[in-house]
Amino acid sequence: MTTTSAPTAPTGGATRCPDCTDGLGRPREVRPGSFRARVHANRQVALTWRIGVFVMGLLCVALGVALAVLPGPLTIPPVLLGLWVWSTEFAWARRFFDTFRRKATDAWAHARQHPATSLAVTVGGLAAAGAAFWAVGHFELVDQATTALGR
C-alpha cells in the first residue's frame, strides 16, 4: 500500500507537506547556502530553530501586551519586534507584521504631528499609573482585599 502526500498548490488552505516551512502548504523561498538553508537542512535543528523563534517572538509580544497598561506608543515597539521575529519563519506572522507595521507607522506619524497631545497623554498616563501604584502601597489595598476575601 502506498501513500501520497497532499498536493502543495499555491492557493490557500492547509495541506500536509513535510517539506513546507510555513505549515500551510506553500514552501518558503530559501537561498542555497544561506543560514536558513543550513538550518533547515537538518529536521531536528530546523524544529529547534522554529521553537526558539516562536519563544523569542512570544516574549517580545508578551512584553508589548504587558506594556499596554501604560499610555502612549510604548506597546508598539516590542509587539512589532515580536511579529518581525515570527515573520522570519511563519507566513501567518508575515501578514500580521505587514498590517501592524502599517498601523504603527500611522500612529508614529500622528504622534509626530501632534507632539503636545502625545506628550500630555503619555505623561498624564504615567502620572496616573504612578499615583495608582502609590495608592495601592500607601493604603495597603492588596492586604485589605485579601482580608475582605477571607484569605
Descriptive key words:
single chain; mainly alpha
Give a summary of the structure in a few sentences.
The protein is mainly alpha-helical and 151 residues long. It has six helices and no strands. It is flat, with a radius of gyration of 23 Å.
What does this structure look like?
This protein has 151 residues and is mostly helical. The chain has a domain at 114-151. It is built from 6 helices and no strands. It has helices at residues 35-41, 43-66, 76-87, 91-113, 115-138, 141-148. Helix 2 packs antiparallel against helix 3 (76-87) and helix 3 runs antiparallel to helix 4 (91-113). The longest helix has 24 residues, at 43-66.
In DSSP terms (H or I, runs of 4 or more residues), the helix count works out at: 6
The termini sit apart by: 63 Å
How many β-strands, per DSSP? 0
Mean pLDDT: 79
Note the run of SSEs as H and E: HHHHHH
Oligomeric state of shown chains:
single chain
Principal-axes shape call: flat
Classify the secondary structure makeup into a structural class: mainly alpha
Q: Level of helix content? A: 55-70%
Q: What fraction strand? A: under 5%
Parts with pLDDT < 50 across at least 5 consecutive residues: 1-17, 20-25
Report the radius of gyration as a whole number of Å.
Answer: 23 Å
The profile of the biggest β sheet is: none
Please describe the topology of this protein.
Blueprint: H1 35-41, H2 43-66, H3 76-87, H4 91-113, H5 115-138, H6 141-148
